[in-house]
């Protein structure tokens, strides 16, 4: 397979997945905003999709790739474990260094008084969406269409409720419906940047394959634990959110086995 082909697939796949952020935010244009309980259910679904994708589409293939390079033993497992921790640490560092706001807990990171509130939201979603695009790109770069398609579908499915959450939060800050939708849609365009980077690195250097897959998984696991699950539990809807997580996990598992 030519190097440029998986890179193009990584870019287009992550672009398609990111575009579903805009689709998810469409209800704000028509005034049909789901209840908080429904939004927490959908975000729980998103967490389940990401959790399954992290293990079945990234960590297990990373172990397989590492074993192919170093045979069986402790070294493949050690490589994957270290790469997962590096991925989590990288997003944690971004989370600490970039000024941003969470929907409920407010401002985090260095002092950003000079930045407009809307850009704080965009920074928050950048931190959130970039590793998702990276994961899609790594999937396509590692194994072409069959490796990236389940991830692209899964990430796209969980982008829809996230787009809605962003748009609803911006409405609460006084933005118009069209502007809230537009900003939510733009946040999804971060993903093809991550997709292009992930597919490019993996396509050019195959020895980096297990590192890239596990790094992307670690980044996604951090987002699940630090961002999505706490958000779904803040309003007392943890039972619905957990049900959504279970449904998202098994659907992503099914898609990965069926399409992979």
From TrEMBL:
<dbReference type="GO" id="GO:0005886">
    <property type="term" value="C:plasma membrane"/>
</dbReference>
<dbReference type="Pfam" id="PF02535">
    <property type="entry name" value="Zip"/>
</dbReference>
<feature type="transmembrane region" description="Helical">
    <location>
        <begin position="42"/>
        <end position="63"/>
    </location>
</feature>
<keyword id="KW-0472">Membrane</keyword>
<feature type="transmembrane region" description="Helical">
    <location>
        <begin position="75"/>
        <end position="94"/>
    </location>
</feature>
<keyword id="KW-0862">Zinc</keyword>
<keyword id="KW-0812">Transmembrane</keyword>
<comment type="similarity">
    <text>Belongs to the ZIP transporter (TC 2.A.5) family.</text>
</comment>
<keyword id="KW-1003">Cell membrane</keyword>
<feature type="transmembrane region" description="Helical">
    <location>
        <begin position="208"/>
        <end position="229"/>
    </location>
</feature>
<dbReference type="GO" id="GO:0005385">
    <property type="term" value="F:zinc ion transmembrane transporter activity"/>
</dbReference>
<dbReference type="InterPro" id="IPR003689">
    <property type="entry name" value="ZIP"/>
</dbReference>
<protein>
    <submittedName>
        <fullName>ZIP family metal transporter</fullName>
    </submittedName>
</protein>
<feature type="transmembrane region" description="Helical">
    <location>
        <begin position="241"/>
        <end position="259"/>
    </location>
</feature>
<feature type="transmembrane region" description="Helical">
    <location>
        <begin position="180"/>
        <end position="202"/>
    </location>
</feature>
<feature type="transmembrane region" description="Helical">
    <location>
        <begin position="6"/>
        <end position="30"/>
    </location>
</feature>
<keyword id="KW-1133">Transmembrane helix</keyword>
